[in-house]
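FORM 7B: Structural annotation worksheet

SECTION A. Query
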Amino acid sequence: MKKVLFLLVLAAPAQADWVLNGERSKLSFVSTKAINVAEVHKITDLSGGITSDGSADIMIGLTSVDTGIELRDDRMRDMLFETDRFGLANVSATVDAEKIEKLGPGESTEMILEANLSLHGVSRPLQIELIVVRSGESRLVATSAKPVVINAPDFGLGTGVEALREIAGLPSISLAVPVSFVLTFDDR
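SECTION B. Predicted structure
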């Protein structure tokens, strides 16, 4: 059905470590079925952080997929993500810590990150465009400037998408999934 993830990362001041605030962070993705029926879903288990040297690491708990329909959630966990074997996706990148350090409260900057997404046992490079806002002395918010498109076959998820299509009796489910995010980081 949908594969996704990805998700992404942020930036941090050189003197501080930043921890992802999972309650204030959101990752959503859009699946398209039957050619033109789009639905928005989310993954709620996000964790990670950014070290003072700019190393960013975000973990995405795939068992927390939430489509609004419990049976579909179960099928996505079992048939698509295979969470018994691949419960986590991971996004890692190096951010420009100096650029973030220079931000004052209320200021923002745009960044393009060369990240790596590990999903379903496959790791691939990913370019992520984001807007980083210093929303206070001890908080950063990173938002996708545009969706990150995850292609299911690139991560070995094509077979799972096909299995979901068959069990749901649908004529099609798109293999390309746009993912968006808002990640909030608190100063440790």
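SECTION C. Observations
The two ends are 37 Å apart (CA to CA). The first helix runs from residue 70 to 81.

SECTION D. Sign-off
Analyst initials: ____
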